[in-house]
Amino acid sequence: MVEEGDDWRTAEIPVESGSQTEPITTLEKSPSTEEHTTTTKTSHTEIPIGPSVRKLLEEYNITAATVQPSGPHGRLLKGDILKYVKSNSLSKQDLGAVSNTPTKEEVIQTSQPTTTVFVPGEEEEFIDIPLTNMRRTIARRLTESKMTIPHSYISIESNIKAVSDLRKQLLGEGIKVSMNDFIIKASAIALQRVPALNAVWHGEEVKMSSNVDISVAVATDQGLITPIIKNAAYLAVDEISSSIKDLAVRAREGKLQLHEFQGGTFTISNLGMFGISEFTAVINPPQTAIMAIGSSRLVAGQDGQPQTNMTVTVSYDSRAIDETNASQFLEVFKEVMESPSLMIVGSSLSSTLKLAGSY
């Protein structure tokens, strides 16, 4: 209390024992302030804090302002908190590990109002992953493709029940082939019938190839690589299967020779095994088309009965291929997939099934 006649500015304010005092800043009006009305701006020190840093601050009961930030623009990093914890021998939720008496540096630092800024979802630490030569090449070619090739897209659905049944019949005869093997074969037949898509862009002209060499995208630790099934139209489905298995294994081991993955006239990329219903792929230059394979799914057919459909999407170079050619290619592909006998007629597989009486 201030007695009557005492100056309140010189009075002492009693402090309870053991309580911590906060620094008090007294603003004295200067003569110029009394004579002229001015606007005083309060300086705020912003301390950006991410979720992982905030969690550490809470776990160790640390005030953000007591830690010296080392990140760009005064950002607190996890390393700053961990360094502070180590230097002060702190334990989680150990309040006694920190002195209750603020240091001189802490008093100076907390004398200004501070605002903590929470940036949701922002991480403070990154891991640099150097690019391999293969990834550099892939990045360069994909960038070139998207920047220089006018991509157009067209899709179609096909009923794959018949080809699934044929695959089961072959499996029953001890012949293991995948759905992807049938897709490669059907694509090769379609490319023979519609050769406009079996071409490469060369300078200012299109070169159609007499051979159907299909590149198949294979994921490796170094990135995607596209080994080639040479003359796929003349191979039986089981021969395609053996060839792709051998190429895929050697691709992942890094043992492919240049001629086994450089070139090709058409590419197939299949993400159906990952449950991707449909997608679009980037053209692999100098090729002029690539087909993206989605997963199979049950749908209601025109008769109301359930059927298994698959969506494929062709990305094609509009400079070399028009929509009519692309449509014709997909129509043939659909026809072959829904009439799989076209893929085994005249091959040893047809003879095997006839002998077994299952075809």
Automatic annotation (TrEMBL):
One of its GO terms (biological process) is pyruvate decarboxylation to acetyl-CoA. Keywords: Acyltransferase, Pyruvate, Transferase. Residues 48-85 form the Peripheral subunit-binding (PSBD) domain. GO terms for cellular component: mitochondrion; pyruvate dehydrogenase complex. InterPro entries: 2-oxoacid_DH_actylTfrase, CAT-like_dom_sf, E2/Pdx1, E3-bd_dom_sf, PSBD. It is an enzyme of class 2 (transferase). SUPFAM superfamilies: CoA-dependent acyltransferases (SSF52777), Peripheral subunit-binding domain of 2-oxo acid dehydrogenase complex (SSF47005). Residues 1-46 are annotated as: Disordered. GO terms for molecular function: dihydrolipoyllysine-residue acetyltransferase activity. It comes from the Eukaryota. Its EC number is 2.3.1.12. Belongs to the 2-oxoacid dehydrogenase family. PANTHER family: DIHYDROLIPOAMIDE ACETYL/SUCCINYL-TRANSFERASE-RELATED, DIHYDROLIPOYLLYSINE-RESIDUE ACETYLTRANSFERASE COMPONENT OF PYRUVATE DEHYDROGENASE COMPLEX, MITOCHONDRIAL-RELATED. This is Pyruvate dehydrogenase E2 component (Dihydrolipoamide acetyltransferase).
